[in-house]
Amino acid sequence: MRTQVAIVGAGPSGLLLGHLLRQAGIECVIVERQSPDYVLSRIRAGVLETVTTGLMARLGIDARLNAEGMIEEGFNLADGERLIRIDVKALTGKHVTVYGQTELTRDLMDAAPERGLEIVYGAGDVALHDLDGDTPSLTFTRDGAACRIDAEFIAGCDGFHGPSRKAIPPPHAREYERVYPFGWLGILADVPPCHPELIYANGPRGFALASMRSPTRSRYYIQVPLSERIEDWPEERLWDELARRFDPISERGVTRGPALEISIAPLRSYVFETMRHGRLFLAGDAAHIVPPTGAKGLNLAASDVAYLSDALIAHYRDGSEAALAGYERTALARIWKAERFSWQLTKLMHHFPEDGAFEHRMQIAELDYVAQSKAMQTAIAENYVGLPL
Ligand code: RFL
Ligand code: PHB
Question: Do 216 and 192 contact (CB within 8 A), yes or no?
Answer without folding.
Answer: yes
